[in-house]
Each structure stands twice: as structure tokens, then as C-alpha cells.
Write a structure and sequence with these properties.
It contains 13 helices and 65 strands. By secondary structure, it is α+β, with helices and mostly antiparallel strands. The chain folds into 5 domains: 122 residues, Methylamine Dehydrogenase, Chain H, CATH 2.130.10; 72 residues; 223 residues, Methylamine Dehydrogenase, Chain H, CATH 2.130.10; 118 residues, Immunoglobulins (Immunoglobulin-like, Sandwich); 189 residues, no CATH class. A 5-stranded antiparallel beta sheet has the order 1-30-57-56-55, with no helix packed on it. Helix 6 runs antiparallel to helix 8. InterPro entries: Ig-like_fold, Sig_transdc_resp-reg_C-effctor, Tscrpt_reg_LuxR_C, WD40/YVTN_repeat-like_dom_sf, WH-like_DNA-bd_sf, Y_Y_Y.
């Protein structure tokens, strides 16, 4: 009775309000291991914590290590570069750090970096010689740093030092109390900054207590080598558990109280052990079960309910809150699993390496060490299916049909590959087996199955077979279509075959499947669930499944169980349709998102039991599901912009938490970082992540650069984005995540501004304005100068035009003058001609006068001869002399010569100068020739005969030295 009360009290006290976080007892939770190669730091990790945003931090040998769900990085180190041993964080995300020979605090700067500040300078010099600070605890307004040499209490920027007489063993936080294990004094309590002994605490000296949990039944002590004890009222009693041997042999290093009263215990040599409040073993997860190292240094449950395990080598994340777990053993012999079956309390799995079994009851009760998969001898190749038919377990293998009994299998029929068996309706003693190239019939004789014959008339691959209420067989061929087979009455041949494909209503002839749900034949297609219309015989969408599963996904499996559930694999999603009282269904998919991409394609299989166990056969082993285990899937989480850097210059970081990478790392807390970038930095690279660690690799992201892009991108697995040649503008980079449960994260934003290039800055525009003004001024000035030049040119042109006009006028005047001169010349010529005419007239008159005088003379001479010579002689002589005188005409000649020279450009003078040998008579003759008188006209003028004129002409020719053939008249006219 006392034991029962003790168990009940511990159960009540240790149980958490959130009952849904209970770790599964069946199977091993999903484990994600992070080794030193993945996080690129030291192998040893000593502590782990999570800040208010959800970021994970680890105390690593190289410093404080951060994990944002995608990237690992060392964010800071103690000033002495020693290993970090312990971490604590307050509500403002200020981290306190215990290191080797150092301790202090860490804050995050606006540029994303973390800055470490040592507090060692606050303690006396004499107390600065200490080792590892293995515990750091925040208590109200004080922070306690614990080392084996001293306890440092930091409060109000002062540090109080508490030293042991010998040495401390461990620091133990229990609810609101703090205990210290002293190697000499035993168990002490820290209160009011002083250590006070616990009553009878000296009895615990040397026990190496590693953890204490407080209960109404006293303190539950976890020791390093001696197991668990309860301590109350001076009474120390062992607390027996099913894991005592393991705990005592492998040394407890750390422990954590899980949310449902379970206790997780980390050991130094055997990994993690989970017990319930009564001491029953729930889980033992060690290196053989998937943990990468057996030395557990610390434990922490995150906001999502996952357990983080820091190890001597590496880090592991155990998803203790998941309803899914792996059925694992130490042999690790199973690979791809095509089918599972529980038969006679044994769990069988059909794999590509044969058939295996394990004791299911032992495994289910937590005896994992003794429950290993064992190989069924006789089969070592692909076992496609197993099933219970009557009281027999049959296996269908590549080489034939086998009956399984215990650890061995007996060949029933050697055929060319067997896929699956199905009982013939209304004939429980007949089994139809689908094979690679047709069908076979087995018959139960004397409680044993016996091979009969091959079914004639059908030679297609028959991997998927179902029977309807009429006894017909529906066979799905994944690459051809659906066959409906009717056997003859003797079940040895096919009586009728009907074939259905896309011509009969299916959306495609490929990847068709056939299932039997509620005694109805259904078909899985690439576009939802179909059935055959009873009237038209056409294939049509099934309305219920259309409503719940739609017509867009490939239905790969439909599997009803005995609890009104229909299990399905639709596309990449696995789900459960549960029928409720009103006949409708509820659909549940979120718990099974982990199964995405794990099935063997084309061999999806789900096995259910009456006890509620569900098994999924995958290419990654057998996975168990328990509906009692409920996980919260709508947990809020944040997206995170991990790093922002400029591509040019190469890797110029703007924002990052990476250690010692930013040039402005000396900025103090609260100092704003400039996110105003020059135009030369207009190519940016963003790295982002989400603070959700369950299947973090499957988290998808969408992003949007506001100010550059019109809308959000599509979701993708991409965790980085580059932008190049961004124009000047103010930008906001947004990013959101969507986890495997389709929960969208809180949005992360990064605001920045790209400045314009220097030639588009305000000063450039001012310069442009000035230059523009100068240019306008110069243009105006130039235009003015051009206008002035044009004006001067115009004036010059006008002057030239005026001059030209004047010249034209002068020319016109000259022309007029010339015309006038011509007129004058004409007038002169007319005058000359008149004078010539006058001269000629005078000459003619003279000639006439001379002719008269000659005539008179001749008459006188005649008269003289007739009259008395003596009477009139004297008188006649005087008359004759007078006439001769008149004939000489010297006076008239002189007048003639003067007029002639005027008319003929001093002809007489020029001729006399040229030919001085000419006599006056010769000159006269030349003048008359100049006047173009003929010989007859000249003779009277000279008072000589025509002969005399000829002779005179001859003499003149000689004087002028003219050749004989020359015309003297032409010479005189041209002289």
C-alpha cells in the first residue's frame, strides 16, 4: 500500500499540465543528429538553451554556437577564448555565460552580432583563479555562476564570492530552491547569498548528486553511480527503477523532468534513459538506437516539445512529442519494407532482404534490448506481401509462395514470382494468388495450403487484386488499366475478362489501383478516387472521396481499419478519414507529414491492429503510430533573416550573427546600424531560415522585396536570395516560412535604402542645375554674341549690299555714262560725219570751185587766143594769177588740215612723224586717201591730172616702203 501511495504521489507531482507531450513507449522517437562536420565546430557541447524568438544556442568548446534551423555558426567567445560550459538567458534575451576561468554576459547588437562582456573584473584578484563554470542560473534579480572552486553571485553590478572549505561537487536547482553539494559538508542550501546546511544533509556527502527533484514525498536524488534515492526527514531510501542496472553502471550525468512526469536521464556511457514516475523504463535511446554518442552532457525541451541532447560528441534532437516512432533494434537488418503483419504476437516485416520477425509483446512492453528482428530462414530475396489466411501465415516472394512457421518458411509453390494472395469469395478453402505472369490457385487440405494449378486464360501481372460482392476479381495493372476477371466454376480458367482504361472514364490508364472499402470496389487514379457507375458502367469520381480528397491528387492507397477509419496515401500526404456519428468524415493529415517521401514508390503499405497500433512500411524502416499521442502542430514560430551581405564588394556583410565578421563589430548595444547603402552596393544576398526544427529541411520559404517586386514569390526550399542592380529606392525584404504542417511563420523583415549614384544625388542635381544655368547662360551669351555677330554681319552685308548697290548704281551710271558716251560718241561721230560731210561738202565745193576756176582759166586761155593779145593780155594775166592763187588754196588747206587732224586723231602729224620724207602734196594725197577718195576725186583737189595722181601714189608707196602687192588705201585707212 505504501508503495502504491508513493507511486501515486510521484505521478501526481511529476505530471505536467500538458499531457499530450508524453514520450512514446513503443518504438524509438525520430532523431536528428548533428555531428561536428555539419555544425563545423568542436565536438564537445555542454549546455543548450532557446531564446524568446526560438533560436537555439549551444555551449561549445569553441564558444557560443547558434543554430537557426538552417545554419550553424559560432556567434561569440569568452574574452579568454576558453570553452563555454554553461548558459542562461533572461526575459530580455540577455545571455549569461559560464566558461573556463571566465564568466560574463552576451547581448545582441543591431547589426546581428553578439557581444561578450566579461564580469571577472568585478571579483577580487584573489578569487579569479577558478576553473570551469559548469552552471549558470538566473534567480530573480541575481545571476549565479557555479564552479567547483567558488560560487559567484552577480547582483547590482557587484559580485559576491562564496568559497567551500574543500570543494563543491555540484549545483542543484530545485523549483524555487537552490542546493549545493559540498564534498565535505554534504547538501547545502543557498539562501540570502549564503550557504546553510540542510538538516541531515551531511549524510549525502560524497554521493555525487547530479539532479534533485522535489516531491511531497521529499527530495528525489539522482546520483552519478548509485542510482536514485528519496530523501525526507533524515531518511534516505533507494528509489528502485527498471533501469537501475544501466544507471549505476553507466553513470548519471544530467537529468530533466519532462512535461508529463517522465524523467529523462542522461548518462555518460549509455545515452538517454526515460523512466516514468513509478520507475518503469519507457525508453532507452543510445548509440545503437540512433543517438550519435552515448555521453550525454545536457538536456533541454524546446517550445515545440522536442528534446535537445548535447553530447560529448555532437548534438541530437529527439522528437519526443511526435506520435510517430521507429521500430528499431540493434541488428538494423531491415531495409525497404513492403508489408507488415502481427501474427501470434509476433511482428513480421516483408523486406527486400527476406522476412523478419520480432517478439511484439516484449517490444511493446519496453523490453527493446531483448526484442530484435530475426530472419526467417528460407527466404532471402524480395518478399512482396504477407498475410494470414485461416490459421496460416503465407509469404509471397520472388521465388514463389511460402508458409511461415516460427523461424522458418516452407515453399508451397515455386512460381515465377508471387505478389499477393486473396481468398475466393464463399470458398474459404481456396486462395487465389496473383503472380508476375498470371494467377495461381491454392487449396486448403488437412489444414494446410496446397498448390493446385495455374489459372488459364490470363497472363498479366496481378500485383493488386480485390474481389467484389459478385465474386469477380478486379486486377489493377499500373501501366495498362483495370481487368475484371470472372473464373469458371472449376476455378481453373478465366471465363470472362473485361478491360477498363481511360476510354471508359478514367482520367488516365497509368498508375491505376483498386481497393475495397465498405464492400465497394474503388479505384485510385492520378486524379482522385473513382468507382463504376452501376447503370452506364462508366468510371466516375466517387462523391465522398471527391469531397474530402479532391480530384487533383494521385490516390496511391486506401486502407480501411476496424475502427471506422479509412487510411489513405494521396499524393505525398498520408491521412486518416474518421467516420463520425452523422455519417460525415473528419480528415487528419498533420501527424503523418513526416512520412512524405518515405514510402517505397508503388508499394505503399499501412497495417492496422485492433489495439490501435498502426504500422507504415517505408524505405527507411517500419514506423509506428499511436493515436493516443497528440502533438500540437499549430505552434507559432518565427522566420529569421540570418545574414545580409553585399555581393560587390565580395561578401561585404551588412547584417550577420556570425562571429567576428563585421567591420563595425565595436558598436555598442542600442547603437543603430546604418542600412543606407551606396549605389555601388546595390547587389545584395539574403540568407534566411525559420526557427522551427521539426523536419527543418522540409520547411519552405516565400519572400518579397517590397519596392522592387510586385508580390510574394512561390514557396520553395530555397534559403537564399540574391538581388542585383537594384535602383535607388527604399526597400523592405520580407520572408515567411511554411513548415511541414503547413503552419506559416511570423514574418521577418529587413529594411534598407539604396542611395542613388553620385550623378543622381541632390548635390549632383544642384551641380547639374548650376551647370545647366551656366550652360543656359553661355548659350544665351553665345546666342547674344551670335546675334551681335549676325547683326554686325547684317550691317556688313547691308554695307556690302549698299556698296554693291552703289557699285551697281555706279555700274549703271557708268553704263549710262558709257551709253551717254556712246551717244556722245555717236553724236560726235554724227558731228564728225557731219563735219566730214561738211569737209567733204567743202571739198566738193572746192573741187567744184576749182573745176569752175579751171574752166574759167581754160576759157580765159581760149579767149586770150581769139582776142587781141596785146589788148587784153595784161588784164588776163592778172586774172590768171589770181585764179592760180585761188587754186593753190593754201589757206583752205590749212583749215582742212586742222579739221582733219581733229577728226582723225592727228593723222597728219603721226604720218609726218612716221614718214618725214613725205612732201605736203604727198600728205594731201594721203589725207584724201584717208577720206577714202578715189583718184578722180583727188586729182581736182591737187590741181593735177588723174595721171599725176597715179604718179604721186606710186611715189608715196615707195616712200612708205610698201610691197607691190599692198594696197596703199588700206594702209592709210588702218594707220
Amino acid at each position: 500500500m505504501t508503495k502504491f501511495i508513493r507511486i501515486l504521489i510521484l505521478s501526481i507531482l511529476l505530471i505536467s499540465p500538458i499531457l499530450t507531450a508524453q514520450i512514446k513507449k513503443i518504438g524509438v522517437p525520430f532523431i536528428t543528429n548533428y555531428n561536428p562536420k555539419s555544425y563545423k565546430a568542436a565536438s564537445e557541447n555542454w549546455d543548450v538553451l532557446q531564446d524568446s524568438k526560438g533560436m537555439m544556442f549551444f555551449a561549445n568548446h569553441f564558444g557560443i554556437m547558434q543554430f537557426d534551423g538552417v545554419r550553424w555558426s559560432i556567434v561569440t567567445q569568452p574574452e579568454n577564448r576558453s570553452m563555454v560550459r554553461s548558459l542562461a538567458i533572461d526575459k530580455k534575451d540577455k545571455m549569461y555565460v559560464g566558461a573556463q576561468g571566465d564568466f560574463g554576459f552576451v547581448i545582441q547588437l543591431p547589426n546581428g552580432q553578439y557581444q561578450y562582456k566579461s564580469l571577472v573584473n568585478l571579483i577580487p584578484v584573489s578569487a579569479r583563479n577558478f576553473g570551469d563554470v559548469v552552471h549558470t542560473v538566473i534567480r530573480k534579480d541575481e545571476i549565479i555562476f557555479f564552479s567547483y572552486e567558488a560560487i559567484f553571485i552577480y547582483k547590482n553590478n557587484k559580485i559576491k564570492v562564496l568559497k567551500p572549505k574543500s570543494s563543491f561537487d555540484d549545483f542543484l536547482e530545485v523549483d524555487k530552491e537552490i542546493y549545493v553539494s559540498d564534498n565535505a559538508k554534504g547538501l547545502l542550501k543557498l539562501k540570502n547569498d549564503a550557504l546553510t546546511p540542510v538538516i541531515h544533509g551531511e549524510k549525502l556527502a560524497g554521493m555525487k548528486i547530479r539532479k534533485i527533484f522535489e516531491t511531497q514525498n521529499g527530495l528525489l536524488l539522482l546520483t552519478q553511480k548509485n542510482g536514485l534515492f528519496s530523501f525526507k526527514e533524515n531518511l534516505l531510501k533507494p528509489f528502485l527503477t527498471e533501469a537501475d542496472n544501466v544507471l549505476k553502471q553507466n553513470q548519471i550525468s544530467v537529468a530533466i523532468q519532462l512535461s508529463d512526469g517522465y524523467i529523462g536521464i542522461g548518462t555518460r556511457q549509455s545515452g538517454l534513459i526515460v523512466i516514468d514516475s513509478a520507475g518503469h523504463l519507457i525508453q532507452h535511446i543510445n548509440k545503437q538506437m540512433g543517438l550519435q554518442n552515448d555521453y550525454v552532457t545536457n538536456l533541454k525541451v524546446d517550445k515545440e516539445g522536442s528534446l535537445w541532447v548535447t553530447l560529448k560528441e555532437g548534438i541530437s534532437q529527439i522528437q519526443i512529442s511526435s506520435p510517430l516512432s521507429r521500430i528499431l533494434d540493434t541488428s538494423s537488418s531491415e531495409t525497404k519494407i513492403y508489408c507488415s503483419q502481427i501474427y501470434q504476437n509476433k511482428l513480421y516485416i516483408a523486406t527486400d532482404n527476406g522476412l523478419f520477425w520480432m517478439d511484439w509483446l516484449s517490444y511493446k512492453n519496453g523490453k527493446h534490448e531483448n526484442a530484435n528482428f530475426q530472419h526467417v530462414s528460407g527466404m532471402s530475396e524480395n518478399v512482396w506481401n504477407i498475410g494470414v489466411f485461416g490459421n496460416s501465415l503465407l509469404a509471397f516472394e520472388k521465388n514463389g509462395i511460402f508458409e511461415v512457421s516460427g523461424n522458418s518458411a516452407k515453399l508451397l509453390a515455386k512460381v515465377d514470382g508471387a505478389w499477393k494472395g486473396i481468398l475466393v469469395p464463399n470458398h474459404p478453402d481456396l486462395l487465389l494468388v496473383g503472380g508476375y505472369n498470371g494467377m495461381y490457385l491454392l487449396k486448403k487440405i488437412n489444414n494446410s495450403w496446397v498448390y493446385q494449378h495455374r489459372i488459364k486464360g490470363f497472363e498479366e501481372s496481378s500485383r493488386v487484386i480485390e474481389t467484389d460482392k459478385n465474386g469477380d476479381f478486379w486486377i489493377a495493372h499500373g501501366y495498362k488499366g483495370i481487368f475484371k476477371i470472372k473464373l469458371n466454376k472449376t476455378f481453373d480458367a478465366v471465363a470472362d475478362v473485361q478491360f477498363y482504361n481511360d476510354k471508359n472514364g478514367f482520367p488516365s490508364s497509368l498508375f491505376l489501383n483498386t481497393f475495397k472499402v465498405d464492400n465497394q470496389i474503388l479505384f485510385g487514379t492520378t486524379k482522385g478516387v473513382y468507382k463504376q457507375d452501376s447503370h452506364s458502367k462508366k468510371m466516375i469520381p466517387e462523391p465522398i472521396f471527391k469531397k474530402y480528397l479532391g480530384l487533383e491528387s494521385h490516390i496511391r492507397l486506401l486502407k480501411p481499419d476496424n475502427q471506422n477509419n479509412i487510411w489513405y496515401v494521396s499524393g505525398e500526404n498520408t491521412g486518416k478519414m474518421t467516420k463520425i456519428s452523422n455519417g460525415s468524415f473528419t480528415v487528419e493529415e498533420l501527424p503523418f507529414r513526416k512520412l512524405r517521401y518515405l514510402y517505397v514508390p508503388g508499394f505503399e503499405n499501412i497495417q492496422t491492429t485492433t489495439s490501435g497500433d498502426v504500422f507504415f512500411g517505408t524505405q527507411d524502416g517500419l514506423i509506428h503510430y499511436n493515436a493516443i499521442k497528440n502533438k500540437k502542430y499549430q505552434t507559432k514560430y518565427k522566420a529569421l533573416i540570418s545574414e545580409v551581405k553585399c555581393i560587390f564588394p565580395k561578401d561585404s556583410l551588412i547584417f550577420s550573427s556570425r562571429y567576428d565578421v563585421l567591420p563595425n563589430k565595436t558598436k555598442e548595444a542600442g547603437e543603430e546600424i546604418s542600412r543606407v547603402l551606396s549605389y555601388s552596393n546595390n547587389a545584395l544576398h539574403f540568407s534566411f531560415s525559420s526557427l522551427f526544427y521539426d523536419e527543418a529541411d522540409a520547411t519552405k520559404y516565400e519572400y518579397w522585396l517590397e519596392g522592387f517586386e510586385p508580390k510574394w514569390s512561390e514557396y520553395s526550399l530555397q534559403t537564399e536570395k540574391e538581388y542585383t542592380n537594384l535602383p535607388e529606392n527604399e526597400y523592405v525584404f520580407h520572408v515567411r516560412a511554411k513548415n511541414i504542417y503547413d503552419v506559416v511563420s511570423e514574418e521577418a523583415v529587413f529594411r534598407f535604402e539604396i542611395l542613388p549614384p553620385w550623378y543622381r544625388t541632390i548635390w549632383a542635381y544642384v551641380l547639374y542645375f548650376i551647370l545647366y544655368s551656366v550652360v543656359i547662360y553661355l548659350i544665351i551669351k553665345y546666342q547674344k554674341s551670335v546675334a551681335e555677330r549676325d547683326r554686325q554681319q547684317l550691317i556688313l552685308n547691308q554695307e556690302k549690299e549698299l556698296l554693291r548697290s552703289r557699285a551697281e548704281l555706279n555700274e549703271q551710271r557708268l553704263t549710262l555714262e558709257q551709253e551717254n558716251m556712246a551717244i556722245v560718241r555717236e553724236n560726235l561721230e554724227t558731228t564728225i560725219n557731219l563735219k566730214n560731210a561738211k569737209v567733204a561738202s567743202s571739198t566738193v565745193n572746192l573741187i567744184h570751185l576749182n573745176e569752175i576756176l579751171l574752166s574759167i582759166k581754160e576759157l580765159i586761155s581760149q579767149i586770150d587766143k581769139k582776142n587781141d593779145p596785146n589788148v587784153n593780155f595784161s588784164l588776163l594775166t592778172k586774172i590768171n594769177k589770181l585764179i592760180d592763187h585761188e587754186l593753190q588754196g593754201d589757206k583752205q588747206w590749212n583749215e582742212f588740215e586742222e579739221i582733219f587732224n581733229q577728226l582723225h586723231d592727228n593723222f597728219m602729224q603721226r604720218l609726218k612723224q612716221s614718214y618725214p620724207v613725205l612732201t605736203p602734196r604727198d600728205m594731201r594725197l594721203c589725207a584724201y586717201l584717208r577720206m577714202n577718195f578715189n583718184t578722180k576725186e583727188i586729182a581736182p583737189l591737187l590741181g593735177i591730172s588723174v595721171r599725176g595722181v597715179e604718179d604721186t601714189r606710186y611715189r608715196i608707196r615707195k616712200k612708205l616702203q610698201l610691197p607691190s602687192d599692198a594696197n596703199i588705201t588700206e594702209f592709210i585707212l588702218n594707220f
